[in-house]
Automatic annotation (TrEMBL):
GO terms for biological process: 5-phosphoribose 1-diphosphate biosynthetic process; organic phosphonate metabolic process. This is Ribose 1,5-bisphosphate phosphokinase PhnN. SMART domains: GuKc. The gene is phnN. Belongs to the ribose 1,5-bisphosphokinase family. Keywords: ATP-binding, Kinase, Nucleotide-binding, Transferase.
Length: 176
């Protein structure tokens, strides 16, 4: 059975780096989906499809998203193509949202493999400061949110060390 791999984790945990590394040599039966986001294409970080809010809402109304949500003042969507890929027996890895995991669990049930990329508070604080996108207050909020317990039935994937080690652990999880 094809699986939807829902990768979550705090901002700064390294999700984009991990997905980019996996894109270099993905397993044969895996596709990594791009998200549709109401954020400029050159905003940095993840490779996404940039949409205006009006275009996002239009596509949402037309039913072109398998899943959509709002977070941090932006709209996020996963195109209906992920359902086509799953129907063809391909595993699909997406950069998901921890808060919207219950909705995705209801929709995909046993096809869902929820993963949470974690880093220690010290490493996360250092990474957030280095990238320079958040104020000290915003960093404190992100650290507090990252300290919340893992959602039930999620697999933890630690990214404190070398990215290649995290990538290897992810490959092992995907091979099971």
């Amino acid at each position: 059975m094809a699986r939807l791999i829902w990768l979550t984790g705090p901002s700064g945990a390294g999700k984009d780096s991990l997905l980019n590394a996996l894109r270099e040599a993905p397993p044969d039966n895996l596709l990594i989906a791009h998200r549709y986001i109401t954020r400029a294409a050159d905003a940095g970080g993840e490779n996404h499809v940039a949409l205006s809010e009006a275009e996002f809402r239009r596509r949402e109304a037309l039913g072109l998203f398998a899943v959509s949500w709002q977070a941090h003042g932006l709209h996020y969507g996963l195109g209906e193509e992920i359902d086509l890929w799953l129907a063809r027996g391909l595993n699909v890895l997406v950069n998901g949202s921890r808060l919207h995991l219950p909705i995705v669990q209801q929709h995909y049930g046993t096809q869902l493999l929820p993963l949470v990329l974690q880093v220690s508070p010290e490493v996360l604080a250092k990474r957030l400061r280095q990238r320079g996108r958040e104020s000290d207050v915003e960093i404190a909020k992100r650290l507090a949110r990252a300290a919340e317990p893992l959602p039930a039935h999620c697999y933890a994937l630690n990214n404190d060390g070398a990215l290649r080690d995290t990538l290897e652990h992810l490959r092992q999880l995907l091979a099971d």
